[in-house]
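Margin note: ligand = flavin-adenine dinucleotide.
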Amino acid sequence: MRTIHEPARETQVYDEVEVLVVGSGPAGHSAAMAASRAGVGRVGLVERFNHLGGMPTGGYVVYIPSLGYEPDIWRIYGIQKEWVERLKAHGGDSLIQPPEEDVGSRDPQRIHHWKSYFGFIISGMVSNSIDADPDMLKVVLDEMIEDENGRIIPYMQCWGVDAVMDGDTIRGVVIESKEGRRAIMAKVVIDATGDGDIAAFAGCDYEDDWDPAIRSSNLASCFRLGGVDFRKYADFKADLSAEELNKLNRGFKAMHGAFGPNAMARNDQAWINTAWLGSCMKIADLTKHDRDMRLCMEDYLKYVRQVPGMENAYLLDMAPQSGTRGGRRILCEYTLTSEEFEAPVHHEDVVMVTGRYTDRLHAPAYVPYRTMVPKQAENLLVTGRAYSSTAKANDSANVIPHCVIMGQAAGIAAAIAIADGVKTRDISIAKLHEEMRRQDMYVPEN
Ligand SMILES: Cc1cc2nc3c(=O)[nH]c(=O)nc-3n(C[C@H](O)[C@H](O)[C@H](O)COP(=O)(O)OP(=O)(O)OC[C@H]3O[C@@H](n4cnc5c(N)ncnc54)[C@H](O)[C@@H]3O)c2cc1C
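Resulting structure:
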């Protein structure tokens, strides 16, 4: 490979914080919130785009499955619960959620109604999932930061491009911005880029193999339709035979891996999810997949307008962020395997208890804190979808609520490390669990 020589240079320090979170998706935003609430006075939050939230806001991933644990499989905890409550406070167009009396129901009529909303039926029951309006969620995430009264400092439109290392210990992150290249120094850094960018820059080993059969091996370019009557479309779809439905869906799929319309919080809008085999770590793939989707968008419109309920559909907008499902998985002190969803292993440092998100009646896996503690760097945590896991295990447990939980736990862990003056790998698990419970997170009793 051809290289060029870049001369060494002095880089201005833009800011110094106690905890620096890079990436503001479900994991990063939650990590920043949790660190602040656990007592950290200055938390930095670096985000490459102009809004917080990652995939559920910028990627138009509007469906958030409920992620209950034993003993109550439909209960939502912690920061995820706060998202739902705050969205509700913004009114009816902000989200769809089945009413309490429907949740857990196997009643055929209720199942029939909620089946038309993608993913709302889990393990044969109406689940406590939501469809969130991505723009209102952006507002909610901003409000949450505001309510921390200046303890969280967002740095928007800044890319984390390197790790500032002192031997094995991370001391900060280099960013590229409109002001140029700058450094932000920190006692603890949390990599919440989803792709493990910062951990890779810090020299941590990682895996990035994805079996093509796995959901997370696909990129996406989601978009939204306006002018639709979703209820009419859902009723039409419900009456189709399996063969007719397959035929309809094959037509959508032929257009760059697009799916049929899914529900949004408003009846006159629809969300189009897509799946295209490609890597979110490769420039060529990232360039190609959004462009190719745009090039067949008009064909999609022509096709969808033939379907009842979609006659007047128009292109509302395309997600500002590419849909990234699986990037690097950083090798940490413990790697979650898929077998743990079959035969649970109890870990003393558990931070998340989860079944496969598509199955609520199966044994849950107990995900340990060590899946976020890289083997090769000190005072660096990796949270969200880049946590240490095999491809298959990651695919089962990397959706939005998982990332919120892992982020919240990582933020608390960082706060404890700073308060106790210890490395992030050496924190007291008893203190981690105590603060997790105080912040309304689920921790099993034994
Ligand atoms: C099309 C699609 C459909 C999906 N469907 C669902 C679904 O229906 N329900 C569900 O729950 N989950 C779904 N998922 C999965 C889920 O959205 C993600 O796994 C989850 O959002 C990951 O959260 P995260 O915080 O780890 O990463 P992300 O959401 O990817 O957030 C990472 C953030 O870091 C920022 N960032 C990245 N690199 C840098 C850098 N170097 N410097 C600065 N900032 C950086 C990004 O801009 C982003 O804001 C889907 C994903 C996709 C793509």
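The longest helix spans residues 400-420.
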